[in-house]
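Q: C-alpha cells for this one, please.
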Amino acid sequence: MSLDGRVIERIKNYTNFWEKDSTKDTDAERDNRLTNYSDVINGYYDGATELYEYGWSQSFHFSRFYKGEAFAQSLARHEHYLAAQMKLKPGMIVLDVGCGVGGPARELVRFADVRIIGLNNNDFQIARARKYTKRAGLEDRLTFQVGDFMKLSEIFGEAKFDAVYAIEATVHAPSFEGVYGEILKVLKPGGTFGVYEWVMTPQWNPSIPYHKEIAHGIEIGDGIPEMRSSTACLEALNAVGFDIKHHEDLADRPDEVPWYYPLEGDILKAQTVWDYVTVWRMSWSGKIVTQGAVKILEWVGIAPKGTYDVGEALKVAAGALVAGGKLKIFTPMFLVISNRPA
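A: Here is the predicted structure, written as C-alpha cells:
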C-alpha cells in the first residue's frame, strides 16, 4: 500500500476482472467480480479518483441540464433536488452511502442544514474527503467513515439515521437486495432512503449484441461488477421491506440538453464559457493530453502503476455511456424515494 492509501496491485489488476470482448465475458467472470466486489471497486477508484477530480469535479455524478446552465450549477441542482424529494430538514442525521470525496455531502450540509456521515470503503477517497471538508470548515457537521456498505448495520447499529441517500454508488454492490437491506436496517422507522441509481432501462435487451456491448463497456469503464435493470432495483427495494413512494427516470424527461453532453467532448455544446475546459477534457485531444500526462507520471513514479489502464477504461466508459444515453437503454439517474415502514 502507498502512503496515500492506494494499493498498487489492486490498480494494476483492475482490468483483469473482465474480458475485453463482451461476447467472451462469461457468467464465471461476472461471478468472480461479484465475489471480489471490494477489489473491483477499490482497484477502480484507486486509479480513477484523481482523474475524476481533474476531468469532472469533486461530485462524481451526472445531472440534468437546462439551456445555458453551468456545469457546476447543474451538479449542485441535482443534489438539491434529491434533498428536496427526500424532505431533508435541519438537524437530521443523514448517511451518505458511497460518498466519494465528499462533494455532494458538503453541498447538502450547506443546503439542507443537516448533519452527514459519509461512508465508503476506499481509504484514498476518505482521506481526500476529510481534507476537503476541513478546508471548507464543515468538520463539525460532516464526518467520514471507511467501511463496506454491505455491512452498515455492523458499523453503525440499527435504526440510527433519519435519512440515507446514495448518489450513483449502490450500483457497485454485489446485489441490490444486500445493500438496500443494510440501508433499511440503519434507517429509523419512518426514515427516508433516496437514491440516484445506475440501471438499464426497459428499452435494454441483453439479447441484442450491441445492447450487451454497451452494458459491458459501462461495467468495465466504471468499476461495476454487473449492470442491472430498473425493474431489478424496484423489486429489490420491495423485497427487503421498503415502502416505495416515488420512482422516475429523470433522464427520460424531454430535456433540450442531454445529461451526457459533457462526455461527447464537443466544445461547441458547452453551455457557458467556463465549461469549455470541462468539455474539452472529454474531447479526443483532451483525452490524448490527459493520458499522455498520466503515462509520464506513471513512468516517473508519481502516479501509481495501472492508472493509465484505468484511464483507458474510462474512455471506454464514456463511449458506452453516451451510446446508452442516446438509445435510452441506460440511465444514471433512476430516482427512487422510499421509506422504512414505521
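A few notes: The two ends are 44 Å apart (CA to CA). The domain at 71-198+228-255+331-340 is CATH 3.40.50.150 (Rossmann fold).
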